[in-house]
# Entry
Amino acid sequence: MEQVHALGRRKAAVARVFVNEGSGKIIINKRDLQVYFPSSILQYVVKQPLNTLGVAEKYDIKVNLCGGGFKGQAEALRLAIARALVKINPEDKPALKAEGFMTRDPREVERKKPGRPKARKRFQFSKR
# Structure
C-alpha cells in the first residue's frame, strides 16, 4: 500500500493526513500525539475512527495541523483520518458514516457587523 493523503477541516483548523502501513504511531507537526494533545479526551477524539474499525495498531499517521484551537484541530484530524481510511478501504464508509465521522461540521464563526458590539448583540435600545 502506498501513502494515502486526506484533508479535514473544522472551524479554522486544517488537518493534512498521510497514512502508511505501520505500528500505530501518530505524529502531529513532528511531535507525538500524547505531546501535542496532552488531554486524554482529545486523544480519544482523534483515535475514534481507528477504534471504530479496529485498525488502531495497523497504520502510521503523519499529520500537518494548522489554525484554530485544540478542540477544532482534534475534530479536523478525526475527519481527515476517517476520509483517509475510506480511501484505503471504501467498504468501511457505512460504519464511519453511522458514527458521524464522515460529516464536515459546517459551523463557522459569524462575522462582526458594523455598529454593533458583536455579531448579533445590539446596544441597549432607548426610546427617549
Summary: The beta strands are 4-10, 13-21, 26-28, 31-32, 59-66. The chain has one domain: 4-99. The chain has a mean pLDDT of 93.
